[in-house]
Amino acid sequence: MNRSYPALLAMAVLLSAAPAQSQECDSSCGLGSGSFRTYGLLLHNANTGQEVDLLGAFGFMLPRGRDGRWMPRIDLVAGPSFYNGARPETGLITGIHIGLARALTGDYLELGPGYPIELYGMVGGAGYLGWHLEEAPEDAEFFPALSFAFGLRGRGNSATSRMIMIELLREERFGRWNPRLYLRITVTSPLGRAASPPAPAQP
Fold this sequence. Notes:
mainly beta, 8-stranded antiparallel beta barrel, elongated, 1 helix, 58% strand
């Protein structure tokens, strides 16, 4: 299968998703259009622990549109890659992720009054520099990747609330590099502003 097909499908979903009518966000659950720091962790575990990546991430997100529906972001990532060759080995990965996420619907579930949880999709790309990795144990090499993801974001009901994002991120690496499936967890923090307390519940 063409490696670009899943990402193109994900992009089509992002662009065509229409707001659902079941329970729409209003100003009580709106997300502002400010800037947010992102702190993240990415975990890849394949072949029953024979291949493990554990990456930390730090970056920025700029929610835009109604309720912050569009979420462009950029992250720096780095961490070890563990694998079994002739013996257990450890490599190092560092790089940059760029992505564009979109909340897929205008409806939401509620963790509590005024605390919505929303489904989103993302497409993006990455560039890495790796040392002593499974595909090139003797070399340091650069390699690009294309990624797409689906996840959930949970947040408070103020324009400056922190968010927690949990997603499955599929990464297609070009050339001889094996693809990855990451569990990514991201916590955002408002940049240059204190988070506001939740607005009182509406009668």
